[in-house]
Amino acid sequence: MPTATTPTTTPLKPATNQSTPASLRTLYNRAARAFLHRDIHQTHSLLQHAFSLLLPPAIHDDSDSLAPHRRKWDILRITLETTLYSSNNHHDHPLPDSLQQILSLPSHSLLTTLHQRSLALFTPTPTNPSSAYLPSQVLITLVLSSMKLNCAAAGRTFIEDWLGKSPGGGGGEEYEKVLDIYCLHVLPRLEEWDYAFEFLQYENELAPQKRQVTRRLGLLGAGGAGAGEVVRRRLGLGGWGGGGVVGRIWGELVKAIGDTVRMGGGGLV
Question: What is the DSSP letter of 236?
């Protein structure tokens, strides 16, 4: 990861005349810009302020005006922490204690902590945290984090838990994205070619797209062990942007955060 800038934490002023969604939009633009400039302390400070406003929902329905903000902010938080963790802790300035504490965990424990934290954020109170309420966009970010940290098994667990519990998981573009990552990236990384192909053969929600994904999987898996080595190289991980398929997707995620600034806080929802 490129060298972080000198800490420039700006005092946060209470938004007395703004609604919570409007305040969160303003804060997000600042946080995303700070993240893109590698200003870790400012990004972390703004994240803490935002999550002091973002409590778990009281009910689970479309009337929750804070739902898109929870998604955007959680994606930004996961992206920051994963990026810092993958940089091997090479920072010019000490990290905030709360951030340093979570980044000191072993990679699998870190991912489990991030996943459980997201479940708690999106599950309505007082329900026990459940993947049934986890947005697919956040799930995908967690899975990409697991692959960037070379813990694809954790990503597999996250997806399979979501598939088993998410009532609206079947069908739709986001569902297809989850299956694409699961079958074309996570399972191949674990060399579970046969299981991935079998899963798609019996999957009932993808309709016409299933043939396309299955064909892509067949092309990736053809050739046995030799092809597996090719795929491992193609799924290689890198630093901030990285190389290979996973690195490219991660770079697109970081770019999407930047796009939200240009869109005035929209996107990533």
Answer: -
pLDDT given at position 226: 45
Quote the CA–CA distance of 262 and 114 in Å, as a whole number.
28
Entry pTM: 0.79
Query: Whose CA is closest to 72, among 116, 106, 122, 111?
Result: 122
The overall longest dimension of the chain from CA atoms, in Å, is 63
Section 48-56 average pLDDT? 95
Predicted pLDDT of residue 13: 46
pLDDT of residue 20 exceeding 70: yes
What is each CA distance from 264 to 19, 26, 28, 51, 146, in whole angstroms?
16, 8, 9, 20, 29
Q: The tokens 């329905």 sit on which residue?
A: 61
The b/e string for 142-175 (b: 16+ C-beta within 10 A; e otherwise) is bbbbbbbbebbebbbbbbebbbeebeebeeeeeb
Sorted by where each begins, the domain ranges of the chain are: 20-262
Residues 99 and 102: their CA atoms lie apart, in Å, by 5
Both tokens of 161, joined, read 């838990």
Integer Rg of the chain from CA = 19
Are 92 and 266 spatial neighbours (Cβ–Cβ below 8 Å)? no
Written as six digits, the tokens of 237 are 């991980």
Residue written as token pair 């955060």:
257
Among 106, 249, 109, CA closest to 177:
249
Residue with tokens 């905030």: 96
204 — phi, psi (to 5°)? -105, 0
Query: Tokens standing for 51?
Result: 């999550």
